[in-house]
Design brief:
The protein is built from 19 helices and 12 strands. The chain is α/β, with parallel strands linked by helices. It has a 4-stranded mixed sheet with strand order 2-1-3-12. Helix 2 links the parallel strand 1 and strand 2. Helix 15 crosses helix 16, helix 16 packs antiparallel against helix 17 and helix 18 runs antiparallel to helix 19. The longest helix is centred in the middle third of the chain and has 16 residues. It is globular, with a radius of gyration of 22 Å.
């Protein structure tokens, strides 16, 4: 496990987030030139799909895209990426990393290093190009010297995605505004959970469903001066989840498990799931279908029997940032990819309407929110307008390079407590032990 720490320390140190200073650069007028291979490191197919649908046709015919895909769980992706970045100066040109992706949970690990290219000075985008992007998406990727090290096509405010038919049975309505009012705070949410149980439903699927709602509202970072800090929001999540588990308000599923996905299907009894737009598109929609080969429409499983509201507490979850790797021989393509997939309002609008993403473009999202856009998975609802306020208020000032490890370990350590296999004190001991094993530089 110590290799994670060694790689992390070699790549980066924890940094304070500073604002960007305006620097101007001109994008190329001609079609981009490149090396023969564009190496892109990713952990799933999300960006690959966006790339293929909205950019691939712009690539020169003689350029091959090599996707290096490694699962994110257990830091496997980071380990693979770290090893490749360490070899960047010694491998042949066509084997060098050109683009790689990072998540908010560990973005800082890569931002304040020489492995990431400066979007303005090295890659050549201008402040004018990125002016419409949500501020927090740029703050996360700004290093301690004020240099912007990556961009994203998505902003990730979240909410509560609920089953319309269950809402009608429990609340007498499936209207997003009225359901939102019924779930407007945790006290109301918990009361509805009790009512749902009486009707034979689970309010949430399992232990982890509400975790990101609480953790994203932390006022303190997980680590301060190498000391582990437990924010009151984490204790609130533990208390609520223990209560939900003991009272049968959840079905004891773990996030990403088959049991969690089954709750999204036609026979599912789960009232709803917390998540952002990508969770709807990449997790819920596929899991809702009875027949994956049939049209995605009402009547195919639970597809279309869902809607979206803010829920008891605003939050954001995730986000994928695109970084250019130092040493790439494809700078012009990198510039064109970033400009097309994160700055082009037409592309941002198309991704939102065709894929359901809340994209990283303020005027585009404001326009979609007031348009006749309808999301078929959500029964024709235009859910984008419910995201607008949350997107402008997202604050990531508490993020650290340890967030992914902390999040995974706290959820894993508390599972036995929720199931009654260990005491709360024992669960905390297990958490601290596992975290310090992963990060030996930290202490309780």
């Amino acid at each position: 496990m110590k290799k994670i720490v060694v790689a992390a320390m070699a790549l980066a140190s924890l940094v304070a987030l500073n604002g960007c200073k305006e620097k101007k650069a001109e994008a190329p007028a001609a079609a981009p030139k490149a090396g023969k291979v564009l190496n892109i490191y990713v952990w799933n197919e999300e960006f690959q799909e966006r790339f293929n649908n909205y950019y691939a046709k712009k690539l020169p015919a003689d350029v091959k895209v090599n996707w290096v895909m490694t699962p994110n769980q257990g830091s496997a992706y980071q380990d693979k990426l770290d090893e490749a970045l360490m070899r960047q100066d010694s491998v042949p040109t066509d084997e060098k990393i050109d683009l790689f992706l990072v998540e908010a949970d560990y973005a800082l690990k890569y931002v304040d290093t020489d492995f990431t290219l400066d979007v303005i000075n090295d890659i050549g985008l201008s402040q004018q190009d990125i002016k419409n992007q949500y501020k927090y998406t740029k703050d996360i990727m700004t290093d301690s010297k004020g240099n912007l090290k990556g961009l994203t096509w998505q902003a990730c405010p979240g909410g509560f995605i609920y089953r319309r038919s269950i809402a009608k049975d429990v609340l007498g309505t499936d209207d997003p505004v009225k359901v939102g009012e019924a779930l407007a705070d945790w006290s109301k949410f918990n009361a509805v959970a009790a009512d749902a149980k009486k009707k034979g439903y689970f309010m949430l699927s399992g232990y982890d469903d509400a975790f990101r709602v609480f953790s994203d509202n932390m006022k303190q970072p997980w680590v301060v001066n190498n000391k582990i800090v437990i924010d009151p929001q984490i204790n609130a999540w533990i208390e609520q989840t223990k209560n939900f588990t003991s009272n049968g308000y959840n079905n004891k599923a773990s996030l990403w498990s088959p049991e969690s996905s089954q709750g999204m299907g036609a026979k599912g009894k789960v009232f709803g799931y917390f998540g952002p737009a990508w969770f709807i598109d990449f997790v819920m929609a596929p899991s809702s279908l009875n027949d994956a080969n049939a049209p995605k429409e009402l009547g195919n499983g639970s597809y279309g029997d869902w809607a979206f509201c803010k829920g008891p507490q605003g939050f954001s979850w995730g986000g994928t940032w695109i970084c250019g790797a130092k040493g790439s021989d494809n700078i012009e393509i990198i510039r064109d990819v970033l400009k097309t997939l994160t700055c082009d309002s037409t592309v941002m609008t198309a991704i939102a309407k065709e894929k359901g993403d809340f994209t990283n473009n303020v005027p585009a999202m404001e326009a979609v929110a007031t348009s006749d856009y309808k999301n078929p998975f959500l029964g024709g609802q235009n859910h984008i307008k419910f995201f607008l306020d949350s997107a402008t208020s997202i604050d990531k000032s508490c993020i650290t390079q340890y967030d992914q490890g902390m999040s995974e370990k706290i959820q894993a350590s508390m599972k036995d407590y929720f199931d009654g296999k260990v005491t709360l004190d024992q669960a905390w001991d297990n958490f601290y032990r596992s975290v310090i094993e992963m990060y030996p530089n930290l202490s309780k």
